[in-house]
Amino acid sequence: MTAQLIDGNALSKQLRTEVAQRASALKAQGVTPGLAVVLVGDNPASQVYVRNKVKACEDSGLHSVLEKYAADMSEADLLARVDALNNDPSIHGILVQLPLPAHIDAQKVIEAISPLKDVDGFHIASAGALMTGMPGFWPCTPYGCMKMLESIGYDLKGKHAVVIGRSNIVGKPMALMLLQKNATVTICHSGTQNLKAQTLQADVIVAAVGKRNVLTADMVKPGAVVLDVGMNRNDEGKLCGDVDFEGVRQVASHITPVPGGVGPMTITMLLVNTLEAAERAAAGA
Ligand code: NAP
To answer: Whose CA is nearest to atom 18 of ligand 1?
Structure first.
């Protein structure tokens, strides 16, 4: 079996076209969806990420502002900026790029963002909403994974999903989203004994670890769907995921590539969340 690719670029293009259409309908009502991206310091990777996010907004007709601050910005000044953005009616989504410099308490800053504008979905209120099935914003990366499963018409009901990784931004919310769609979910982590015994049971595997070749072909049940969230560099310095792509694609039914898989979907779901925040604000929600 050679797995079918789930193409994150193609799906993103389709979803971003829908975002642009909905944004233009909202603009006709006098509301332009707006995202504020806040960057503190000069982390090179963060600079690329924020540039990509701002460009994605522009391409889809969303208003965006990029606020850049020096690495020695105080926590109090950053909290004051977040507060100002919370009260700015032209801004519907606020994203503070992580990591923040060590002297700033990142969790405190995230909790300062209004849950109504928490388009990254990292606020405790957003996590609570996801856990309880209430309306809120879902973290973009696992949300993108769910859209990828939806795009292949995959019915999760009764299926066994194994999530490798339990971070607050990927693994745990991923598991909750799969559970919400009636999968039976196992969460694995660095303390899991015999990972292979777990993954071999899985109809769906999400790898979100940050280590190359965490998932190899011998660990995958024939026909399983494999989503690769990992972002690593191989020996040649090229971007690669957590999954041994060439091996696993011979066993899986569907697989996401790296690059061109989950990565583009993450930014796309940020646009979706921002649009959603603007639609809710326009509806007075
Ligand atoms: P993280 O916070 O470092 O979490 C990694 C998780 O993997 C932890 O729960 C850890 O377990 C677990 N783990 C480590 N070694 C393991 C092993 N040998 N077997 C099983 N589990 C193991 O990372 P993250 O933020 O979730 O990100 C994970 C990966 O996704 C990274 O490569 C990151 O760059 C990538 N990522 C990609 C996107 C995208 O848009 N494509 C977005 C976000 C993240 P413990 O909890 O026990 O330590």
So the answer is: 190
